[in-house]
Amino acid sequence: MIGQTSWGLDLAPGLAVKTGWPLATDCLDILWADDRPQVLRQLYAGKVFCRMSFPEAAGYLVTLRPGAFPADQAETLQAEVMAGTVPAALPEPGKQFLEFIESEAGEVDIAQAEFLVSVGRGVGEEENLSQVKALAQTLGAALSCSRPVVDKKWLPKYHQVGTSGKSVKPKVYLALGISGAFQHLAGIAGAGTVIAVNKDPKAPIFRAAQYGVADDMFKVIPALLEKLK
Question: Is 60 exceeded by the pLDDT of residue 93?
């Protein structure tokens, strides 16, 4: 198992070629069936989830998307750590690593936040964001959003949650005016408690939420702010 990171994407294919083991990349989960692993992946920009199986092999390689699922059982599982040494007489590599340049970090890292207030298309207009920002500040939460808000350039890319943004795992995720597309729900799979506010009672976001309010977010936000005062 290797992280679906810039380092993992560089390492995994080379290992697959050297070992001859089959490789599956950008996986959301690992399952077990017929004495071999199966993986859950996304296709068509997150619109379709598919379960893929491997041919029989001596070993298997999988890269996992960071934040795809919580590590709540990490302390109960045991694994053997095997240390190895790098051979001294390695041939000169055909390419040389120069530097790693991080993408725009922004003012806050939503992937590390424990409380997120997230806003979607239901915000309507850019000027309405001020109410959402006021709520997030009052709650002591970080501000995040769905893709339509970034596409309209109302918030920078580093606020975006989803398959084309960041996978997050806060303790509390408050979704305001977010319908709940496949891409967004995949990004909040690791969240603890999801609270959804959407005026459409059939919005897919409610299927991922533990608590939901089927009402206009601009009625709920003032009520919350008043209660918090």
Answer: yes
Name the residue range of residue 223's domain: 110-228
| 125 and 201 co-located in one domain | yes
Residue 93 within a domain: no
**pLDDT grade, residue 46 (50/70/90)?**
low
**Is the per-residue pLDDT at 138 higher than 70?**
yes
Residue 105 belongs to a domain: no
Domain harbouring 219, CATH code: 3.40.50.1220
The DSSP secondary structure of the chain, one letter per residue, reads: -EESSHHHHHHHHHHHHHH---EEEEESEEEEETTEEEEEEEETTTTEEEEEE----S--EEEE-TTSS--TTGGG-----------SSPPPPSS------PPP--S--GGG-SEEEEE-GGG-SGGGHHHHHHHHHHHT-EEEE-HHHHHTTSS-GGGBBSTTSB----SEEEEES----HHHHHHTTT-SEEEEE-S-TT-GGGGS-SEEE-S-HHHHHHHHHHHH-
Q: Is the pLDDT of residue 79 over 90?
A: no
In a domain, 193, yes or no: yes
